[in-house]
């Protein structure tokens, strides 16, 4: 009899909904699953105040960039917002269909809407008072989700963007280099050219996403938050772009001194992130959410001093034909054929037992030009991979990285050698004239290439 009773109780418990677990500091934690874009199963956690009574406003938190980011990355924010009397849902970001070179903000927005629907249907949550919060990349995703569903009650973005992703990222890397003491052609010409190359080659996803067109479709009230030391999103330019892009004036723009890109404290101007949130940040979000969900809508409010940027962003339009990725790859192919062909031809003649008469200008050109070109691209790739605020340009002299100065010296030496080689090529005959002609053709292409990439800029 006792065994039968035990089995019955176990079966009943198996079909009962799981009780919320007690989280830190009096919060309740409930695990949930939902369907994202394409039917992908996604997992999340809902945090609520343990002793809350009555329907609560709710907020879904959307990650910044990165594939498969775990929900724990936003646990600090989620707990802080839940203590303000909200139900907060955090979830593991998708890895499927998302990478450094592939992503779709529409897909991410549908993921957020799946989480939003789940939170709206959660016990103790007021379905008419659930909004979406987005960090960094989430600043493009959250407004897009809101533009697709009127059931989203409000939008909060932190370190969010209101400009094209390619323009924002180009500024971030260039600003990071400038913060490290670099000026001149590397941040001014090299970085924008490299990002346009990546975009043209399909290696930078959604480079010209039209954030302004999305904002114009957002009818919900919006809270925009930026840290004074944001080194990844332009904190001086973005708020104005957001205000102009929205089709209404029910927004609040708020700035936090001493805070970084994610509104965390920073002690070194935004380079290092403190685990602590900026003082007053969770309270400001909680107060604003309660206010707008009760019908008290803001009227173009601004709180705090507008942050200042050391440099402004610059437009990064699609490349013209002559500067496209295809033409750039063709130029590199010309370098390989023209410059590598010189020593290869000499080696073949030696193997066949024939004499080879080389000249110093030809050797300098054949070696210096490709080293400068491929070295410049490698250095720019290193700078891009290093990101914005973590830029490490190496030793810098007079605002120029020493490595870049050496690459510029190689370029100048190669072109000077090409000038000396012109009369030699005119006097040459037969196959030697063809070989030197190929070198000089490569030199002309290299000159145009180096001017475009800033390798020859002072």
Can you tag this structure with a few keywords?
458 residues, two-stranded antiparallel ribbon, 2 domains, Rossmann fold, hydrolase activity, disordered N terminus, alpha/beta, transmembrane, hydrolase, single chain, 10-stranded mixed sheet, 13 helices
Structural topology:
Elements: H1 2-15, E1 21-22, E2 27-35, E3 41-49, E4 56-62, H2 75-82, E5 87-91, H3 105-120, E6 125-135, H4 138-148, E7 155-158, H5 165-179, H6 185-200, H7 211-215, E8 222-227, H8 238-245, E9 251-256, H9 281-293, E10 301-303, H10 325-351, H11 360-385, E11 396-397, E12 400-401, H12 402-427, H13 430-453
Parallel strand pairs: 4-5, 4-6, 6-7, 7-8, 8-9, 9-10
Antiparallel strand pairs: 1-2, 2-3, 3-5, 11-12
Helix pairs in contact: 3-4, 5-6, 6-11, 10-11, 10-13, 11-12, 11-13, 12-13
Keywords: Hydrolase, Membrane, Signal, Transmembrane, Transmembrane helix
Transmembrane segments: 325-348, 360-382, 402-424, 436-455
EC number: 3.4.-.-
Provide a concise account of the structure shown.
Helix content is 46%, strand content 14%. It contains 13 helices and twelve strands.
What do you see in this structure?
The protein is an alpha/beta fold and 458 residues long. It folds into two domains: 20-163 and 209-303, 3-Layer(aba) Sandwich (Rossmann fold); 321-453, no CATH class. It has 13 helices and twelve strands. The strands form two sheets. A ten-stranded mixed β-sheet has the order 1-2-3-5-4-6-7-8-9-10, with helices on both faces. Strands 11-12 form a two-stranded antiparallel sheet. Helix 9 (281-293) links the parallel strand 9 (251-256) and strand 10 (301-303). Helix 10 (325-351) packs across helix 11 (360-385) and helix 10 packs antiparallel against helix 13. The model is unreliable at 1-20 (pLDDT under 50). Its EC number is 3.4.-.-. Residues 75-263 form the Peptidase S9 prolyl oligopeptidase catalytic domain. This is Alpha/beta hydrolase family protein. Keywords: Hydrolase, Membrane, Signal, Transmembrane, Transmembrane helix. Residues 1-23 form the signal peptide.
